[in-house]
Write a structure and sequence with these properties.
single chain; alpha+beta; Signal recognition particle alu RNA binding heterodimer, srp9/1; 2 domains; five-stranded antiparallel sheet; 4 helices; 19% helix; globular
Length: 224
């Protein structure tokens, strides 16, 4: 789970931020005096930070997220495209110290139309429906694990192992991350696969439990 705390910007910094991002995110508009802004530094970017921008003229959910540095902003849209685009410009630093946070960040802000991969590392991170029973919860709790660094493979990709919820099933999976731009031979395709820096891939998925009484998120909208 990605649960890093955001810090609020003071009024002067908020005004400067809104003035700077306005031409960068058009046609999206943010109303001065009705918009609050919070910021989070990310260890894998030197210049870009993650901003949570809440528009109080709208009912909740009313928070947009963006990656921003002065003069450059990328609105998050729950796909991997804004993240990969910023990775090309940032630059980004993916190594043993940053890859765990990067994976948690990535899977929190990338939510596919067909379902969302939710990294769960502790029992309290699993969201249950009211009809879930204690036995079911115990079976899940004994199978979930912290995201674990496994090293750099022969393919030069960083490999992590994690437990994830997808729709109503629990999986154990490897997460592959490209620490730099590269071509990797894919034995299933019998061809090289191109990775941009920071690109993700799930491999070795192992179904642990299915038909769980957990909520299945609908496809994301503008605000998640």
């Amino acid at each position: 789970m990605f649960d890093q705390p955001f810090l609020p910007l003071d009024p002067a910094a908020t005004q400067k931020f809104l003035a700077d991002v306005a031409p960068l995110i058009a046609p999206v508009t943010l109303t001065e005096g009705k918009t609050s802004v919070q910021c989070l530094a990310l260890p894998f970017y030197d210049d870009f930070k993650l901003y949570a921008v809440t528009d109080s003229t709208l009912p909740p959910p009313n928070t947009r997220y963006m990656l921003y540095k002065p003069g450059d902003a990328s609105l998050m849209n729950w796909t991997n495209e804004p993240i990969y685009a910023v990775n090309e410009r940032a630059p980004i630093k993916i190594d043993r110290k940053t890859c765990l946070t990067y994976a948690r960040f990535f899977f929190h802000y990338v939510r596919g139309q067909l379902g969302r991969f939710i990294i769960v590392e502790k029992p309290e991170e699993v969201v249950w429906l009211a009809n879930a029973n204690a036995e079911e919860k115990a079976e899940v709790n004994k199978r979930i694990m912290p995201v674990t660094y496994k090293g750099i493979g022969r393919d030069n990709l960083i490999t992590l192992t994690a437990s994830v919820v997808f729709k109503n099933a629990l999986f154990k999976t490897d997460i592959k991350i490209a620490p730099f731009e590269m071509d990797v031979f894919d034995p299933e395709l019998n061809a090289p696969e191109h990775f941009t820096i920071g690109q993700m891939k799930l491999t070795n998925e192992d179904l642990l439990l299915e038909d769980l009484n957990v909520p299945i998120d609908p496809p994301p909208g503008e605000f998640g």
